[in-house]
Amino acid sequence: MILKLTPEQAANEHEIKRAMERETHGKVRSFRIIKKSIDARGRSISVLLNVEPADNPLKYENSFEYKDVTNRPEVIIVGSGPAGLFCALRLIELNIKPIILERGKEILSRKQDIALQNRNEAFDEESNYCFGQGGAGTFSDGKLYTRSKKRGNNQRIFEIFHAHGAQDEILYEAHPHIGTDRLPEVIRRMCNTITEYGGEIRYNSRAEELIVKDGNIKGVKISGGEICECNRVVLATGHSARDVYMMLDKAGIAIEAKGFALGVRVEHPQKLIDSIQYHKMDTKYLPSASYQLVTQVDGRGVYSFCMCPGGHIVPASTEKEHTVVNGMSSSQRNSPFANSGIVVEIHPEDLPEKYQKYGALAGLIFRDDIEHTAFVNNGGGIQNAPAQRIGDFVKGKVSFDLPQCSYLPGIVSSPLHFWLPDIISKRLQQGFHDFDKKMHGFLTNEALIVGVESRSSSPIRIPRDSETLQHQQVKGLYPAGEGSGYAGGITSSAVDGERIAERIAYEIGL
Fold first, then answer.
1. Which of the four, 273, 302, 352, 382, has the lowest number of CB atoms within 10 Å?
2. 3-state secondary structure of 480
3. Could you count the other beta carbons within 10 Å of the beta carbon of residue 156?
4. What tens digit of pLDDT does each residue of 198-239 get?
5. What is the DSSP-derived secondary structure letter of residue 454?
């Protein structure tokens, strides 16, 4: 049944039971939440609950039948992000042995490297917010919401996360979210399941070359020179693995340019976003407010991406002398800041002429140049980031001082309006004006922009056959997840990994 309650009622188990009893005209001992969402469109905010009576209201159980695959046919998976991990788990269910090659370190060592990165003391190109056990997903905040409904069972992905320790809420929240404080342990348990049932995960094993003979994949050469032989390889390296695209291009393995997005991360006081979104109402029983914004400027989309209520901004570069930022939230979303990527849609033909000579790599080189420019303008710190008050950015003025920011390594005042390319800066300036019409108060000098948000999507697609999911040129090579250009975000990448596992099982005859 669907209940429409006030936020205070929805926070009280007794009030939920009373509302159910009014609907059923009977006694309700306990209940289970199927779906939960907030309707803040009107002046009065409501919580919508889809609930059902249940014997065990707090017990959400999911079980998956994993098999011992120690001596089963092998598949190499390059990368341990969402696509790689979910591909591996599904292969085990299908009685196939996954061998994951991960360029970075295990979570504990990776945490130590990230701590140094946040203190602006050191940066490891192989162990950071993007590379290491679990990939970029491990230290993201685990946003599971996706608009994609075409490619698989999203709920199954949530259930697998839940079975490995994620909270019950991800099974019914409208915008499920695990939290950066919980996600590393969930990832660690998923990896333990893989190895417990006979799969392998090899860390510090960067893929340096794909071994191809007569159009067939034969294995992967990893750092140190070792060749891991296999006639089925899943390439799930994520869109930050710049060297993988370069490797493919050098080897003559087809890649192609695609549209992508690039911009900045915007940070407001969370109280300001709450006031705007909740119409200045009491927020005691409401979560930190979020937003989704989109507009069109000169024929290109400008939109919010990865909005983090009660979150913080983090360094996300993967190369030295590059500055990249991202955002995340803990499970409680209780930081005093709200941040979001605000990015501009870029088509390959939008790039300046000097990049066109790079062919399929044009967007990647363009992205590199902007990230390096951000580094040059970061004041000289290892992980400092350039920043500007949003009102000053729109007016083309230098910010002579900056408000407090959640970005731990530190920010430096910089004229982003001046050094960002016009195809980005001009559209962002107009986009912020448009957003202020939808959320009055969004365009304020209380807010900051921090640069640059450049990893929201891949500028390259690795072409694959729509039926077999194999590379169009190399048999047995399966591009997967965000890095392949066929997914965006944790859930769609995980679904893509599962689809590839099922296709491999079909071809093996299992």
1. 352
2. coil
3. 16
4. 999 999 999 999 999 999 999 999 998 999 999 999 999 998
5. -
**Is residue 233 reached through a cis peptide bond, with omega within 30 degrees of 0 on the bond before it?**
no
**8 Å CB contact between 454 and 416:** no
pLDDT digits (tens, 9 = 90+) for 408-462: 999 999 999 999 999 999 999 999 999 999 999 999 999 999 999 999 999 999 9
User: Which of 163, 153, 155 has the alpha carbon at shortest distance from 60?
Assistant: 163
Tokens of 423: 């195809």
Mapped onto helix, strand or coil, the DSSP state of residue 215 is coil
Note whether 326 and 265 are within 8 A (CB). Answer: yes
Alpha-carbon span 436 to 447, nearest angstrom: 12
Cα-only R_g, the chain: 23
pLDDT above 60 for 38: yes
Question: Does 57 score more than 70 pLDDT?
Answer: no
Q: What is the pLDDT of residues 380-402, one digit of tens each?
A: 888 999 999 999 999 999 999 99
Instruction: Give the tens place of pLDDT for each residue, 132-151.
Output: 999 987 887 788 877 665 56
Q: Identify the pLDDT of residue 58.
A: 54
Strands 233-235 and 477-479 come out as: parallel
**Among 167, 184, 163, residue whose Cα is nearest residue 176:** 167
**What are the structure tokens assigned to 438, written together?**
């939808």
The DSSP element (H or E) to which 15 belongs, if any, is helix 13-24
Please give the biggest Cα pair distance in the chain: 72
486-491 LR contacts (CB < 8 Å, sep 24+): 486/461, 487/83, 487/148, 488/146, 488/148, 488/457, 489/143, 489/145, 489/146, 490/82, 490/137, 490/140, 490/142, 490/143, 490/144, 491/82, 491/144, 491/145, 491/146, 491/148, 491/154, 491/157, 491/158
Residue 346: strand, helix, or coil: strand
Both tokens of residue 19?
């509302």
CA distance 87 to 80: 9
Contact 228, 303 (CB under 8 A): no
Helices of type H across 212-291: 242-250, 270-277
Helices (H), 148-264: 154-163, 183-196, 242-250
Residue showing tokens 């965006």: 488
Residue 338, strand partner residues: 268
Dihedral, 331, 337, 338, 344 alpha carbons, nearest 10: -120
Enter the DSSP assignment of 17.
Answer: H
